[in-house]
TrEMBL record:
Active-site residues, Swiss-Prot/TrEMBL: K157, K254
GO annotation terms (biological process): amino acid catabolic process
Organism the protein comes from: Stigmatella aurantiaca
Cofactor note: Binds 1 Mg(2+) ion per subunit.
Protein name according to UniProt: Dipeptide epimerase
Keywords, comma-separated and alphabetical: Isomerase, Magnesium, Metal-binding
Amino acid sequence: MSLVLTAHVLELPLRHAWTIARGTSTSKRNVLVELRSGTLTGRGEAAPNVRYGESAETVLEALQILAPVVEGADPRHFREVSEALQAAVPGHGAAKAAVDIALHDLAAQLLDVPLYRLWGVNPARMPLTSFSIGIDEPETLARKVQEAAPYPVLKVKLGAGRVREVFGAVRQATSKVIRVDANEAWRPDEALAHIEWLATQGVELVEQPLPAADVEGARWLRARSPLPLVADEALLQASDVPRLAEGYHGINIKLQKAGGIREALRTVEAARACGLKVMIGCMVETAVGIAAGAHLGPLADWLDLDGNLLLAEDPFVGHPVEEGRIRLGDGVGLGVRPR
């Protein structure tokens, strides 16, 4: 079976300036990977993150190494090929994810099933996804809350400063359940003070309050926190899970960090073995990347799969979201098509 891999950069303007604790962006440069076999095309997406030293350029460089791994392979043996992709080059999670997603999409098309059928999950068990709101001025935050009206759960980004101002502006505009993501912005003592206050404000959980490397601080905070703590930047792959179990109540698995679907599935199993809850999250991605995460969604306790909603225009059409819940259809593979 002959496979051909192609890739090109996607220039993706955002609907609003996107501000988190690390900085602000107004557009994203992702990379679309297509893996062709005869008349079938599997698609995957890389959403490189500067936090991990990635860019569209580093993705394209890594693809020069990864392409030969799949071009001579049988996509129906996707488990074996996924392992080879992981071993081909250290790091480069986004590039690996793009190829691995395309591989799984193509395999499911060849088997004539939706992707989720490959791991036997029930799509009716899909959790609600949150809608993310970046750091902004109070009047803009109120407008973003209005735009998120169809979503019953919000995720609010917070930074080192203006915690009560930013969160308060969102809470004033809505009574919905809110999740908070600090993106490594706090020290242990201030994190505890913030979390104790947030616990009085209808917050469900707090993501990555401390720097990823602060393992001891996470243990200290977990023992005192009135809210569940979820590791994001501290987690890349399944091998990270055991050391996080004493510092967090759950983990946020992102295919772009894990290097694709196969490693994400292993991370889910590792989390369950360690008694941790699971969130499936995303970067800012098109419907291609979001669909890949959604096919894992029924395995999670929480979802944060809204990255395509932050785009000014998504070049792909994916699965509909109804009252905050992604509805997977019966289309084969990812179930995504160009707009």
